[in-house]
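User: quick one, fold this
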Amino acid sequence: MKLLSSTPFACTLLSLALSAACYADVPIKPKRPPCGCGSLRLLEPKYKKRLVEAQKKYGADSIEVARILVPLAVAYRKAEEFNKGEPLLTRALTIESRAAKPDIAATVRIQTNLGAIYAATERKELAETTLKKALSTEKQELGHDHELTADTLHELGSLYSSLGRYSEAESNLLSALAIREKLRPPRDLDSLAELRTLSALYLKMSDLPKAEPILRKQVAIGEKTWGPHSYSVVWYVEQLADVYHRQGNAAKAAPLWKRLIAERDKTYGPMSPRLIGPLVRYAESLKKLKRNQESAAMEARARAVISANRRNAEADSPDSLSGKTVANAAKGVAKQ
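Assistant:
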């Protein structure tokens, strides 16, 4: 290809796309803490206080203590502090097993959370055994349509997805979703968790026709639950736009790229490197729709954002992450 040394940012859409890929690792300050961390900071002192009080009043091995151990352990699990959550769940399970009349629902909930921790800490075989045991008990004692059955099916589906056993993953996740959608009153957040895991599975499988309706549901439920501008909804919109883009459906992709650009403008500012990818994709969609003037405007804006970020990064050390990122972007442009 011809070198564009005299006009380094007079790029084609292809070179812009290469540059956008180079900017993918530019560090962006998180807009919210990882899932569960905020809840844990609020819950931990309360549960620890209640735990001390229950142990004094009822004894260390009482059912009352187990009832406090489990929600605290779940909070640790959601915050990915597995080393803190696992011993609490193990202790609670021991207490339940020694009770005169064990609580089936409490027992399987503990097993499901333990199975999820085993899966997250790469003890896959133990995770599968634990989750299958919980699922068998739930189906026999609680019923096939119980919400705890759905919880275990979800964890099994996630486990099988991580193991590349996609058919089993899909079957378990679809079963969990069917249960969620039957519950009354509807629990949109629980359904959304299943949809997220299903869409991630289909994208991993590159099964775009199955991913597309799931992502549309995610956007609809997310907008209803949190509003159209929430962090999660914007992320779902980006995934859906990418699916349409990969399918060659420019008519459906274009308005979603436009929406994503508006959201990132507002969140990160008009010169954020996070705008490069959507700008390039929007330009490509517009070009396919024969809206050439608008496409050229998006190309020009993408070049301006790349140029601005290049100048900013040149002030950094050449060995810094942002310095390397922009250098790579410049090379991607120059090679065109």
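User: anything notable?
Assistant: The longest helix spans residues 292-314.
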